[in-house]
Amino acid sequence: MDVLGKQFREIFKSNDIKIGMTELAKVTGVSPSQLRYWERKGYICSQQDQQNKNHHFSILTAYQVRTIKFYLDEGYTLQVAVQKEQKRRALGKTFHRFIEERIKGIEQDDNGDGLVKLGRLDDDPAKEVYARVEKDGRTTLHLRELSDD
Asked: Which fold has domain 15-102?
């Protein structure tokens, strides 16, 4: 795996990027008072610095807040919106795990199409699965024999 790809993978796995409550309110459309209420109810969580007690939220929490707001806007109660978000987050964790474990590399072929290497087959390690992302956006899956080199 290339070094830059590994570095991006580490950023993707990291949960260290934080935003303040004001920024979270701006990007999600949820008021700071609603965010404080949701935090008191345990629906979301923040980290607070010890000096001035500012709330800092992870990028993943921003997605969580935006998802809850989406379900509220669809007419669900807060409790149901939170439950729906939790189910969706579980699927997101599955996808995140897939990305971490299965994307082995990304390259471009001579035609300018992207190739996403998904790794060797577990039951036939001499073959590799990859996805081709064509310039028009169409994506197809393929299987190929690996060379011994």
From this structure: Multidrug-efflux Transporter Regulator; Chain: A; Domain 2 (1.10.1660)
